[in-house]
Amino acid sequence: MVKEKKESRLRSILGWILTIALAMIAALCIKNYVIINAIVPTGSMEKTIKPGDNIFGNRLAYLWDNPRRGDIIIFYAPDDLSQKFIKRIIGLPGDKIKIMNGKIYINDSKVPLKEDYLKEDWYVMSGPLEYKVPENSYFVMGDNRNNSNDSRYWKHTFVKKEYIIGKGIFIYFPFEDFGEMK
């Protein structure tokens, strides 16, 4: 009888250890292959994302789909692959980007890109500037154009698709900012 109780207790303990180990493995897999967690250190994406906001990104977002203009992406900085940045896609592969007087024109359009997400009118590096986005690359900018280290400034101007870690999905902390990023 005592032996049966010891075996039962041992099975129970082993069951808990196995459950905890599986949960830890699942959490690591989700963290490393499905979601990315980031804390935003600067105001370069204000008004959309504030300094100190905690966000989740989807690492699988571009597995079967291509990034789109307006997507907020998390990526390795082209000039320093040890750093991760978060910015908005402005130019897609093959696009011709023209910046004049704080307005963006895509592919010789006479109508500027509609950008209702901007923090304010911008005057820093506001043009005239022109870029031609190479294949498998993207031109990105922060929403706070007056205070954003983005494609306009980098030695390696464009973000290669292989440098994209994921698509920003939502802010989860602080709670007053909780919600989807648009």
UniProtKB/TrEMBL annotation:
SUPFAM superfamilies: LexA/Signal peptidase. GO terms for molecular function: serine-type endopeptidase activity; signal peptidase activity. GO terms for biological process: signal peptide processing. The keyword Membrane applies. The keyword Lyase does not apply. PANTHER family: CHLOROPLAST PROCESSING PEPTIDASE, SIGNAL PEPTIDASE I. This is Signal peptidase I. It comes from Lachnobacterium bovis. The lineage of its organism: Bacteria, Bacillati, Bacillota, Clostridia, Lachnospirales.
